[in-house]
Amino acid sequence: MGVPDAAGRFGRFGGRYLPEALMPAAKAVEAEFREAWADAAFTAEYRRLLATYVGRPTPLTECSRLSEAVGVRVLLKREDLAHTGSHKINNVLGQALLARRMGKRKLIAETGAGQHGVATATAAALLGLDCTVYMGHTDVRRQAVNVFRMELLGAEVVPVTSANGVGTLKEATNGALRAWVNETEDAHYCVGSTMGPHPYPWMVREFQRVIGDEARAQCAELLPTALPDVVVACVGGGSNAAGTFAGFVDTPVRLVGVEAAGGSAVGKGKLGVLHGFMSHFLQDDDSQVLEAESISAGLDYPGVGPEHVHLAESGRAHYTSVTDEQALRALKLVTRTEGILPALESAHALAWVVDAAATGELAAGSTVLVTLSGRGDKDIQQIKEHLG
Amino acid sequence: MNVVERRLRDAPGRLLIPYVMAGVVPDWLDLVRGAAEAGADAIEIGLPFSDPMLDGPTVQRAAALSAGRGGRPRALLDELAGLDVDVPLVVMTYANVAMTLTPERGVGGFLDHLASVGVRGVIVPDLPLEESAEYRARAAEVGVAAVLLAAPSCDDDRCREIARASAGFVYCMSSMRITGERADLATTARETARRVKGMTGLPVVTGFGISTVEHAVEACADADGVVIGSVLMRMLVDGAPVADVVAEVAEFRRALSSVGG
Ligand SMILES: Cc1ncc(COP(=O)(O)O)c(C=O)c1O
What we know:
The complex is a heterodimer.
Chain A: E1 9-10, E2 13-14, H1 23-37, H2 40-54, E3 60-63, H3 64-70, E4 73-78, H4 88-101, E5 106-111, H5 115-127, E6 130-136, H6 137-142, H7 144-152, E7 156-160, H8 169-183, E8 187-189, H9 200-222, E9 230-234, H10 239-246, E10 254-260, H11 265-268, E11 270-274, E12 277-281, H12 306-314, E13 317-322, H13 324-338, H14 344-359, E14 367-372, H15 380-387
Parallel strand pairs in A: 4-14, 5-6, 5-8, 6-7, 9-10, 9-14, 10-13
Antiparallel strand pairs in A: 1-2, 3-4, 11-12
Chain B: H1 3-10, E1 15-21, H2 28-37, E2 43-46, H3 57-68, H4 73-80, E3 89-92, H5 95-100, H6 106-116, E4 121-123, H7 133-142, E5 145-146, E6 148-150, H8 156-165, E7 170-173, H9 187-197, E8 204-207, H10 213-219, E9 225-228, H11 230-237, H12 242-257
Parallel strand pairs in B: 1-2, 1-9, 2-3, 3-4, 4-5, 6-7, 7-8, 8-9
The structure holds pyridoxal-5'-phosphate.
The site of pyridoxal-5'-phosphate has 22 residues of chain A, from helix 5, helix 10 and helix 14.
């Protein structure tokens, strides 16, 4: 998973499909990131925050009871233990430091379930920046607690209503992009996943690669073979998966990305352009982008990061999908066998492992590393509605 | 020289380019005809897209109305085929529509389709310079003017490149704001138009947020003309008959006729 080409492309995918109004801002982000990522003082400050604020490295947990139940050896990379409860903070802190370096006084962000919004509000509070989070009007209603959490952190939450949208992550991203046009001088747009115009898919992956790099080192210590057989992560926009895969892409390890069945852009999407990048998107025959449908708000996005489509096309990674029911079943199993409540998003990755072990797609006794991207506390209400 | 540029150059006064979302009302083609008769120099035709990144609430609602009535880009374009209006039509839509209107054929198929229904110009705001080389080349081949946008945030070098690559006219964003009506014309409107005017022989047209005849007159102190969109679409969305909207276009025409130079 190298650097994208000069046009910001991974193979055919990616690029920078922005109105001219936003081109200077996106180019400035790219220039600043290139410089900062090569600057030892910047990366040292970023590492310091990851260690002392986020609590990194996150542990690798050997799951003996789960492993016994499913017949493969399961290791969990515990992003649920990162501050704010998911991997989102890794990316946000990197971008918040970058924003400060650029002299911006404000962060703007889109959010679905609110995890990225909460992480952004947190980083803004830490660095003394203003923060506005755009959230689809449906999600504002569904995720009232996270809305309050963001407000408590000092952020303003703006519900995005649209004439035709149902008001989830796609609409929130439209809202954030429109706001960015208005605020390019003062604000940095802190994109929440490996999506958006160049350099975001690349930059967000670089800020998330700490997941994969740590896991690689932890596997080397734990496993006689140094590597697991398979590495698995859930894929919404694709940031936790991209960060995880980045640590293993140069090895023979099998890489598996798991999408939600109702948001399977790699699997069912068609080539298109949305939110500044070329990728696969769920869309109808009349060029209209469709809404994704998943129990998990974090996977409720009709597109996917460009690098994933490229990895799929090149055959280096494989993508599959699981249903809401599969995810809920796996969530219950992991909770009962390990005492770990995964986020609904992460439960998709676990569900694939459970079911692939049962069908023999995963050989008995193989070692599987799963990125547990977040904790499930945010989803309690919804889980109760389905399982309670 | 393409038809759009020739027609705009030949026009005697300041240029008036009304925007009409295709399919927004059942009789939208009457609005296109009426606007042409009321003195429009070209007409911008919007094609509905689910995620219009540069559009404010009014144009979003117009797009949703069109989509809700079954308006689909390809069928709407086909409705233009038989239309005999004497001004060039310039289609505005987003990159996803341009790329996927004819699956497997990409932007080339889209441009062929525009040419085949008699459309003379095209605006795709999310195809900036770096992403539009093939699109611009194909547009030139089929005789459709690919109009590029310049924004207040673009520095002089960027504006110069945009002006050089644009065809038909250069479309200047009046401010760093998405489309929609506003109380005042931003100070950036005249600045940007003046900057771009000094760099190109192409007509320079200012759009976004031109909400009143006063704004239009003020913008035309530097620009060769204006695009008016939200003000017209708001009337339709609120239920005004097409005749009233045509009358509004005529108001703008009258006001612009007073601008000299
Ligand atoms: C816990 C968790 N996992 C995964 C995701 C999906 O995002 P990505 O695919 O970028 O990792 C989210 C998004 O909100 C999330 O909150």
